[in-house]
Amino acid sequence: MGGDAPRQMMSSSSAQYPQLAQRPKGKQIHHIYRDRLGQFTNGGQYKQQSLMAKLYDARLSDSPHVTLEVWSAPDQTRPTFAEATKKSNEYSKAKKGDVFGPSWTTHWFRLRFTLPHEWIYKPCVELHWDSNSEAMVWSEDGNPLQGLTGGGERNEWVIPNHFRDFDQEHTIYIEMACNGMFGNPTGGDTIQPPDPNRYFQLVEADLVVVNLDARALFYDFWIIGDAAREFPEDSWQEHQALQVCNEIIDCFIAGEGSRSCIEDCREIAQKYLGPHVDSEKVYEQDKSDDIVNAIGNCHIDTCWLWPWAETKRKVARSWSNQCDLLDRYPEHRFVASQAQQYKWLEQLYPYAWDRVKSHIKKGNFQTIGGSWVEHDTNMPSGESLVRQFLYGQRFFESRFGERCKTFWLPDTFGYSTQLPQLCRSAGMTRFFTQKLSWNNINNFPHTTFNWVSLDGSQVICHMAPCETYTAEAHFGDVKRSVSQHKSLDQDVTSLLPFGKGDGGGGPTFGMLEKLRRCRGLSNKVGLLPKVKIADSVDEFFDRIERKVANGETELVTWYGELYFELHRGTYTTQANNKRGNRKSEALLHDIEYLATLATIQGRKGYKYPKKGLDSMWEDVLLCQFHDCLPGSAIEMCYRDSDEAYERVFKTGKKILKDALVALGFDTDHEKASDDKQKPIKAESVTLQTLSWHRETPKHLTSYDDDSAANVTQLDDDIFELSNADLKVTVKQGAITSLYDKKARRELVPEGATSNQLVIFDDKPLYWQAWDVEVYHLQSRKELKPETNSHISASGPDRVAIQTTTKISDKSWIKTTISLAAAASAASSASSRLSQVEVEAEVEWRETMKFLKVEFPTTLTNTEASYETQYGIVRRPTHYNTSWDMAKFEVCCHKWADLSEHGYGISVLNESKYGFATAGKVMRLSLLRAPKAPDAHADMGRHHMRWAILPHKGALDERTVRAGYEFNYPLRSLPHSEPRKIKDLMGAFKLSEDSDKSLIVDCVKRGEDDEDASNGDMPAKKGRHVILRIFDSLGGFSRGRVLFGPVKVGRVWRCNLLEDVIGEVEVGEKGFEVQLRAFEVVSFKVELT
Ligand SMILES: [Zn+2]
């Protein structure tokens, strides 16, 4: 009984293993069968016989079904829909093959179509439009529907169901922009300056019926093919992938590409992908270990190879696409950062804005980043970084009821060491970035880690291991999310940010199809890490944060800056723009302080100029975008930013004057305080906008005064400048000796020249405006003047030597080296040091040259110090390791310092950010001359100042204060009640006995104050002053903030967003503060 049954079964259900060999069968030659796969989907000579010929069932592009007319907007205007569709605009006939241009022009098409009867019930009909440029589909009644990106990037618009009717003609408009995703680069090299005469051919304007099965098979085959190509040959999964692919091709050939054979092919694909890849259900299968978190995004550079005006359209195009895709793919999640881009959409595209808002409400379109733009973090001041968060978070909260939890900055050129402290205080405990994968010297060692600020604050930082923020959602991206993950010991999860950036419009339907298949593959055969669509980036970080909090893992730490080993030229390129930034920051600081005082004790009717300040800040913050301030954008962008800074200075000048007038100053009779020949009148009052008391130097009348500045000509073209502190010998425009009389030491090495202008050949490997490469140092050439210097100021307040140096036939630099009377006698605040100041005027017409000024010293240290936001960064002066060497050019703010025990030299500047200290030589970077992407970057006239500040003793508050004072020129104005105004300007200053390391860096009114609010958020009762105080030297600091004559109620500690954290005890005249090293603290002071 037991023996019969199996025999029965065998004979009925399966064939017998044959006794005799039927025919020869060889082992597959692996690479031949693998290379064959390309025939099926790659186009080329077999396209008509391949799957590619089956993707569309029908195609129409001519009358009577499709008619096309065009109206070209004048010049480079970008008219609105209403302007473009005015009756008076004459639309003329157009057709496929026509050419439009030149670069940056706009062409509006009116497209009328009628669907053939037999198409009405087809499952999918699309419009395919390819003008090789960016474009937007508009409805007839003026709603922007979807963005298109030419060149095959994103050509399809799915015809909505309400267009599917019999014999009905429909009209849509298409706004064609004559630029591609990356603007209009010349000769196809992305970073070359725009070609003004680029023309674009309309190659596709077709209605097509899509064969959805063929399209689905295309993605099935793509992913299984990738498994065959990318899985290791020693895995069974690789071999099976190859067999499945070959089986699909064989089946397609046997069925001659028929509909039914395509269905059969898809069934074969299921052997490898499983049965669920046609829907989001694939992500419901086997959810264990789904560790790769894909998230859609579209990184739109706020300006770069196109101006702001085009970015506004890119945002509308890209985000409209995503709204459509979010409707069609339930699993899809999309994140977008940059409050500024949302604000543009809100102002210019109400329909798209409503669509975005409704998706944000649903939770699938997600705000992220919490900053105004994705800004540079090297150069903006501390307060600017604060405002990026304050303006960003307040925008998100006011429009969507929620702040962002994750600071999102995938593409900026290095990360300031104080970011963890600042973004935490702005409500974000996590940070996402990616750019360090571009390092061209050292490989950054972590993926997920604790990033620790100067003050010890930390955030969780994640750098996507797929090493891009615009992944195509390829099989390889998913694979690399584990193979390149450097923190697997601590946590195996990762983010995979996918989607086309910069006007490519974000994720495509194809990317979502590929991800479904990657997941299906992982479910079915394994080996590939399991990808899911992240619910949100916040959820990804929440899980890690919980894990850390619960002690389930301990992340590796990285202390200090995330120095980017590339793009070091961005500290110098586009000098005027950087100068605009520094000057705006100082102006805003002063206005906010004085306007705050004016609202407390100013003339009746004075109102805090919130509107003006907001517009100034928004311009400044916008210009800090990571391709604007760094200097890596095209010329058009710098015309935009020049205009923005012009607006800032114009508004600033007006509202500053208003505040001064409200405070009772006579603004019509100002004497410039830096005009040393004409000292200010006695009744003038010095504006005290910094947190310590400054005095205007007294005017000396005699050279006999101990502190007087003297100048003597020692020899032909050799001069000596001196005061009570310093003796400076200038020979041929450079300093051959700098002698500290009190310390009795020489600061310029024997035979060397300080304040020496040097020029370098500057041809980086590729990214011209961005990079300066280490080999440029080998081309160092000293610039020597051809004519003699002369005395341009002869004391006793100030002496100066002026020298003109020819750089080339086209360029020259005029420097004025000056020494003022010794500060000790000129001011009672005798801790002020004497400094050698240099003013330079440059006519700069060079090509690929780098101008710097050098200061060789007699100091020894393996580390130099550089001012950064709210603190000091120390960096090596040697090249011991490749990590040290990589820092051959670094970013500094108002000063850099090289000190040894007992003595040091600080170099101050008022608009520069690039610096290097190599051994004993300090070097300030002045001007570059890259020719791409702006062919005229930095050409023309420049004005700049720097100073050499020798100091006996360690680096301390004298340097920090000198840096501020060098950047905040003293102003004195007549006032009718000098004592009263001086008293008022004593408010919110630190008491004399406070630690000198403390700085009150910002005094402003509360954002939500009823008399100062901009109305974006509900105003609250009461009036407040916000103070921002930090420890500038890196140690525990204690001090007392004074109220002066201001009547104060309660005082709270608050975060950067001005949320109250805890109450502070208030004394009669002020309150105590205690800060840890490099801590930044904000206080909210109630006015009564
Ligand atoms: Zn970018």
Describe the fold and architecture.
The structure is a single chain. This protein is α+β, with helices and mostly antiparallel strands. It is 26% helix and 27% strand. The chain has 22 helices and 53 strands. The strands form twelve sheets. It has a nine-stranded antiparallel β-sheet with strand order 32-33-34-35-44-41-40-37-38, covered by helices on one side. A hairpin with a 4-residue loop joins β28 and β29. α8 packs across α9 (339-348). The longest helix is centred in the middle third of the chain and has 28 residues, at 635-662. The radius of gyration is 34 Å and the shape is elongated. The relative contact order is 0.08. Residues 1-11, 673-682 and 825-829 have low confidence and may be disordered. Zinc ion binds next to loops.
